[in-house]
Amino acid sequence: RTSTSMESSAISLPIEGLSETREDDFEGQKEELGAYEPPEEQKLDSSSRPAWRDYAELVCVLAPIAMIQLGGDIGEQTVNTALSRASKSSYEMISAYTAVYFITKFMSALVFFFRPLALVQINTRESLRYAIRLLLFLNCIMSGIMIMLALTPAGALVTGIPDGSIVRTTFLALCIMPCFDGAVRFCQGLLLRRRLSNWTAMASVADIVSQIFVAMIVLSADVPSKGTAVLAVAVCPIYSGRVANVLTLTFGLFRNPNFLTRPREEMDSNLRRKEDINLGIIARFAWPLMLTDIIQKASRPVVNAFVAHTQGHEALAILGLVYPLGHLPYGWLNSLKCMHPAYLDTPYMRKKRIPKFTFMTIALSLTWGLTMTLSGLNLMLLRVISHVSDEMVQKAFYPLLVFAFFGIPVGVRASLTGKLTADKNTKALSISAFVRLPGIFATLITLQYLGVTGATIGVAGLLAGFVVQSLGVIGGEMCCRSNNEDRGLYVRSTVVSDVISEDEESILSQEPQEQQEDVELKEIKKVGEEL
To answer: Is the predicted pLDDT of residue 261 greater than 70, yes or no?
Structure first.
């Protein structure tokens, strides 16, 4: 659609009809041509609304999501404390539970992509039912693999624990936990479509309270300090917390039956996207996310096995005890993955506010980690809560110091991952998945050659994996941005050329007195060719 007159030669293109990607790519050109008028809601966000209100809204959305990560860390610390007290600080029991628990977390990575899937792809009731069926199918596969590891010598092989009875009992006890993790992630994604992060926070609080309450009950009972019966101290709080989490999230979904509609889609029906999904769409969207999560979760069991074989069970036990404390300052930064998808209907927040907000959160995480470690608060908490020996506490200082720097690569990776997920460019994340494990192996071998010992070598290997992975995400995002710019310029040039060609034919067929507009048409065509 072109508007040609003697007073103005401005171009008016059907901007509203273009896809979201084209509009984002050519916002600058539209403003230069003066033909684009944003809606009133977007004008308010970009000009009248003060910046502090935007950041306050981001804090209100991120804080409840971050409580999910903090709740998981507190729950893990509660379970570790209960197990340490019940087993009288037995290295064999703590190391066996640590190894099996993180293998279970690795299995849960198969369903971690359901939160971004629900945030971005689930738009209709039909797609919701399809995703639920897929989730149930994957849950059956994960439980079957856990049972197979328990009943075969493969379980003792992957954990590095020679006591087969402890490993077998732990695998069987935790075989259903990945199913609860998948349900929790899926319900969280559905609620975050409406930015209802308060329900995710309440579910996390219910998880923590339930774990602490059940752990106190189990510890007060007469549980033997040796044998596999002591695993009940760890397993019962875990399952009670997961059940409370799922029930709270399900109640939140029933209280908000319109969870498939985003906030701005209610104000403007033109923003609503009713796209059904199938297995091909899910596979193209989810395989990079699944691959990234699987390799990330596999890195911890790999490091555990390396530490167990080269440093002994004591170093592995220390690594398992310090991980929840070290994970507290940076674990909540993974919640930044949800920020871009949650504001998918508000491009201004994604472009202007979320990048600066990410820098603030990374600075907070780094300050938190260094303060807790250098002041000795982490060691005091480890001594008071876990009731371990002073020798183990002293050996935990350097691992906790290395953990303080995890926030830098984790924050960068999480923010860019959320951006690529919201843009449905998850394929760019595959680069980061393939470079993580080589970086970990290279660091572990190098540090062992340099003489680094104990749990410090394992934590340093994990840090190297995060650094390499974040660099891979940065490279993938830059390549994706370059490809989008090239493709967008070609699409806009094609659209302008087609519009001008149609108008040129109509003008040439007009009467001679009307062909005075031909000069202006040539100018318009020149602008289109430049674009």
So the answer is: no
DSSP string of 104-152, one letter each residue: HHHHHGGGTTHHHHHHHT--SHHHHHHHHHHHHHHHHHHHHHHHHHHHS
The SS3 of residue 404 is: coil
For residues 422-426, average pLDDT: 84
CB of 202 within 8 A of CB of 135? Answer: no
Query: What is the pLDDT at residue 4?
Result: 40
Give residue for tokens 């009972």.
221
Please give the structure tokens belonging to residue 211. 């774990």
Write the pLDDT tens digit of every residue in 433-488.
Answer: 888 989 999 999 999 888 888 888 999 999 999 999 999 999 888 887 776 655 55
Give the Cα separation of 345 and 323 in Å (integer).
Answer: 37
Paired tokens of 234: 């760890």
DSSP string, 468-501: HHHHHHHHHHHHHHHHHHHHHHHHHHHHHHHHHH
**Are 158 and 103 within 8 A, CB to CB?**
yes
Residue type, 440: I
Give percent of the chain with pLDDT exceeding 70.
Answer: 72
> What is the reported pTM?
0.66
Q: Counting Cβ atoms within 10 Å, is residue 79 exposed (0-12), middle (13-18) or buried (19+)?
A: buried
Q: Could you tell me which of 258, 121, 114, 281 has the C-alpha nearest to residue 196?
A: 258
Contact 485, 498 (CB under 8 A): no
Instruction: Identify whether the C-beta of residue 43 lies closer than 8 Å to the C-beta of residue 49.
Output: no
Burial string for 233-270 (b: 16+ CB within 10 Å, else e) reads: bbbbbbbbbbebbbebbeebeeeeeebbbbebbeeeee
- Tens of pLDDT, residues 291-300: 888 888 778 8
Contact yes or no for 334/469 (Cβ under 8 A): no
Section 197-223 average pLDDT: 82
Q: Indicate the length of the chain as a whole number.
A: 531
Residue environment code for 336-346, b if the CB has 16+ CB neighbours within 10 A, otherwise e: bbbbbbbbbbb
Distance between CA 203 and CA 248 in Å, rounded? 5
Nearest-angstrom CA–CA distance, 403 and 394: 15
**pLDDT above 60: residue 89:** no
Q: Report in angstroms the alpha-carbon separations of 98 from 79, 142, 304, 523.
A: 11, 19, 8, 71
Specify the range with the lowest mean pLDDT, choosing from 73-82, 185-194, 269-278, 466-475.
269-278
Asked whether 469 and 438 are in contact (CB, 8 A), the reply is no
